[in-house]
């Protein structure tokens, strides 16, 4: 049964953490997987999570099953966090999922059941897991131009031109904020124009919001998708607590569906639950219990929001320091674009070979597509990383 299976390929992101750990060199920097590190190089449990955990451990009386949709109070919290005070709330439904990759897969499966011939349009480039997940759901994938390798910004004109070719049976996947891998986000005007195209062409927008709070702020990072949600008939959203609650290993996310009516949204939810039952039955509870505890407690919510602000501001300052180091010590403004990017990631514009040189010669682990995780830097790494970037460029 198994003898014809090919040898496994390594995951382009997750394999880097293992390679980094096994690297015996003293001088090494992990800029691979999207994980936030403090100035001491650790990924600490957030204080709000720590406090919520104490509360949950002290009060939780059972480990019995929760339900197919996971924790409904968590689901409502995710709807509120993502959509705010939107007027569309009565035609929205949500299920808790094992992380945002789980949400992507559930929604991919839902698309396949509801509209089997759908093509999903992804940005070029996009999060490395987008295409495998959509194809695993049996969907066709196309790409729209997104990133200009010269300016290192979004090529807005080409993006809009190519998205305008999407038809009424297509789905267009957008990154809500902090584009992975490039760090280059679309501006509000582009959100408005893509919304207009969705209305005219009839395609369904699908927004992956995995980094809410890491770009410009919790509300600001959802502004584009909220504008869109108010104006389109149908939409899908995935959201993650991996980064903004630091719950990576707890696999805590949600899939949100906006239907034409409340009934449509409930029908979509029903289908998602049937599919969840046939896949994992129900999502793990712990992460969602912690997020729910924070969101239902004003004091914990304030602590969490402040911590998230601190993390975001630190990313901005790390970007500025790296650019400053490249400008002052190395006299180049070639990498100033790093400062205009948002969230954890930046694409340096390096080839696979250049990324391999960073890894092999300097012990700096970025993704082969040229992505580095700014959130993996510590202040003391900056001169070393700037020097290596210059030597490799
Ligand atoms: C990343 O892009 O590094 C993260 O989203 C981790 C993952 O699941 O791929």
Short descriptors:
393 residues, alpha/beta, 7-stranded mixed beta sheet, two-stranded parallel ribbon, 14 helices, 11 strands, 44% helix, globular, binds (2S)-2-hydroxybutanedioic acid, PyrdxlP-dep_Trfase, aminotransferase, Asp_trans, transferase, pyridoxal phosphate
Shape: globular
Gyration radius, in Å: 21 Å
Spatial strand sequence of the major β-sheet: 2-8-7-6-5-3-4
Largest sheet, in brief, is: 7 strands, mixed
Low-confidence stretches: none
Ligand kinds: (2S)-2-hydroxybutanedioic acid
What is the percentage of strand-forming residues? 5-15%
Mean pLDDT: 97
- The proportion of residues forming helix, as a percent range, comes to 40-55%
Order of helices and strands: HEHHEHEHEHEHEHEEHHHHEHEEH
Q: State the secondary-structure class.
A: alpha/beta
Distance between the termini: 47 Å
Count of strand segments:
11
How are the secondary structure elements laid out?
Blueprint: H1 14-22, E1 29-30, H2 47-59, H3 72-83, E2 92-98, H4 99-114, E3 119-124, H5 130-136, E4 140-145, H6 156-163, E5 171-175, H7 188-201, E6 204-209, H8 218-229, E7 235-240, E8 252-258, H9 262-277, H10 286-295, H11 298-328, H12 337-340, E9 345-347, H13 352-362, E10 364-365, E11 371-373, H14 382-392
Parallel strand pairs: 1-10, 3-4, 3-5, 5-6, 6-7
Antiparallel strand pairs: 2-8, 7-8, 9-11
Helix pairs in contact: 2-10, 2-11, 4-5, 4-9, 7-8, 11-14, 13-14
């Amino acid at each position: 049964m198994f003898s014809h299976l090919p040898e496994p390929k390594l995951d382009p992101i997750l394999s880097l953490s293992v390679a980094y750990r096994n690297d015996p060199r003293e001088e090494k920097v992990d800029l691979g997987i999207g994980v936030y590190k403090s100035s001491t190089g650790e990924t600490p449990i957030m204080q709000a999570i720590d406090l919520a955990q104490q509360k949950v451990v002290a009060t939780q009386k059972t480990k019995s099953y929760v339900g197919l949709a996971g924790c409904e109070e968590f689901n409502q919290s995710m709807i509120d966090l993502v959509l705010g005070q939107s007027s569309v709330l009565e035609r929205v439904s949500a299920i808790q999922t094992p992380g945002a990759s789980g949400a992507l897969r559930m929604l991919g499966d839902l698309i396949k059941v509801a509209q089997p011939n759908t093509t999903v349009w992804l940005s070029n480039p996009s999060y490395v897991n987008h295409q495998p997940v959509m194809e695993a759901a049996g969907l066709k994938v196309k790409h729209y131009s997104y990133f200009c390798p010269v300016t290192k910004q979004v090529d807005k004109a080409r993006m809009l031109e190519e998205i305008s070719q999407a038809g009424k049976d297509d789905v267009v996947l957008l990154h809500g904020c902090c584009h992975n891998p490039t760090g280059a986000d679309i501006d509000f005007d582009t959100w408005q124009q893509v919304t207009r195209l969705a209305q005219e062409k009839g395609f369904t927008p699908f927004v992956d919001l995995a980094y809410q709070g890491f770009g410009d702020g919790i509300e600001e990072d959802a502004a584009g998708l909220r504008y869109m949600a108010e104006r389109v008939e149908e939409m899908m959203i995935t959201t993650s607590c991996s980064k903004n609650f630091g719950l990576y290993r707890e696999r805590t996310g949600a899939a949100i569906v906006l239907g034409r009516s409340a009934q449509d949204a409930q029908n979509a939810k029903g289908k998602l639950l049937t599919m969840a039952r046939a896949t994992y039955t129900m999502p793990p509870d712990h992460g969602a219990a912690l997020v729910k505890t924070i969101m239902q407690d004003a004091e914990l919510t304030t602590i969490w929001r402040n911590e998230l602000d601190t993390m975001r501001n630190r990313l901005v300052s790390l970007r500025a320091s790296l650019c400053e180091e490249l400008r002052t010590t190395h006299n180049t403004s070639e990498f100033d674009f790093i400062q205009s990017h948002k969230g954890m990631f930046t694409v340096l514009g390096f080839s696979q070979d250049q990324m391999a040189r960073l890894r092999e010669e300097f012990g700096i682990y970025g993704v082969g597509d040229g992505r580095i995780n700014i959130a993996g830097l510590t202040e003391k790494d900056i001169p070393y990383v700037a020097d290596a970037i210059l030597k490799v460029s």
